[in-house]
Amino acid sequence: MTATSEHRPSASTTRSPHLLATLGSTALVFGIVNAADVGWTAASTLVPLVAGGVMLGLFVRMERRAAQPIVPLRLFTSRERSGAYLARMLYMGAMMGFFFFTSQFVQSVYRWTPLRAGLAFLPMTLVNFVFAVQVPRLLERAARPLVLLTGVVLTTLGMAWLSRLDLHTPYLTGVALPMVLIGAGQGLTLAPLTSSGVDGVAPADAGAGSGMVNTVHQIGSALSLSILTAVAASVSTGHAAADIAARSGVALTGSAVLLALAVAVVLTLIVPSRATRNERSLRCRL
């Protein structure tokens, strides 16, 4: 009984990493959002940003020393997995900005009802479905990184096109057609990105690996949306509809930048890593 209790982690020790990760992420998001109102040099912005960075640093330190970490740091030893986590953060952050600001645009500039605004996303949704169901067949014919790279590039092109929004942008050529590219890109991206995020994970770390994919998905969405919101809030024209159009364009430009960074991550981390693994596998067979 005594020996068992000595090796059992206390409740406070078990909860500490959770608190540090949660509070650290929350502080970062709060600081970024607050910057839109008071500026980046204000104490109410800098304090939470610094505090968030410190708490996340402490979280990593605790995880490195923990016998049973929440996030085993060995998950990041694979370049492909690390690249998949980073690319997913950037990609989902860009897509969160897309949904948030595009829906604002069609309701505030076009004066569409919420129902019609929802239907406006059908070009993306339908194309997304068509391409997503074809991914298994595509992966039989092409390497996973190639399918993933094609998807992220298509999404980037569509987002860059959509970011040209202004007060006079027509729906068909300015919104619907870019959505077709975005839908095709998303349909090709998510499944390969998820596979790269869990590929090669040891059976003992399967739960943590899967959880990390979901975690970076949520953190990337929250952090990126807070950044895009702060950037969009800096734009002002003095007219309500013009403000929405200008802010949406700036935010979606930011989403395109995030996607371009995701393309760079795929090219520098995921593609070379997969090529190296395939080469090693071929040598072993020979």
UniProtKB/TrEMBL annotation:
InterPro entries: MFS, MFS_trans_sf. Pfam families: MFS_1. Keywords: Antibiotic resistance, Cell membrane, Membrane, Transmembrane, Transmembrane helix, Transport. Its main location: membrane. The keyword Transcription regulation does not apply. It is a multi-pass membrane protein. It is found in: Cell membrane. It comes from the Bacteria. The chain crosses the membrane at residues 45-62, 83-106, 118-139, 146-165, 171-191, 222-242, 248-271. PANTHER family: BLR6921 PROTEIN, MAJOR FACILITATOR SUPERFAMILY MULTIDRUG TRANSPORTER MFSC. This is MFS transporter. The lineage of its organism: Bacteria, Bacillati, Actinomycetota, Actinomycetes, Kitasatosporales.
